[in-house]
Write a structure and sequence with these properties.
Blueprint (H helix, E strand, L loop, with lengths): L17 H27 L28
Length: 72
């Protein structure tokens, strides 16, 4: 006796659904538009000032003394 193994179709037909293609194109278009809008907003932000800023070299750690060292 031979055993019969049922076979299942796990894939859709070879022609893609036009609705899924349209939805995919809309999603890709929305992602491209979001990237474009975000890059424009980032370009409009003011640039950080150049040159040294007050306290730009300061860094406090838990081991740092609370008062600056006294120099003679």
């Amino acid at each position: 006796m031979s055993e019969h193994v049922p076979s299942f179709v796990l894939a859709a037909g070879s022609s893609g659904s036009p609705l899924l293609i349209i939805i995919g194109v809309i999603i890709v278009g929305a992602l491209l538009a979001a990237f474009w809008i975000g890059s424009r907003r980032t370009a409009r932000k003011p640039k950080p000032p150049r040159g040294p800023q007050p306290r730009s070299g300061s860094w406090d750690t838990p081991d740092s003394p609370t008062e600056p060292p006294h120099r003679p």
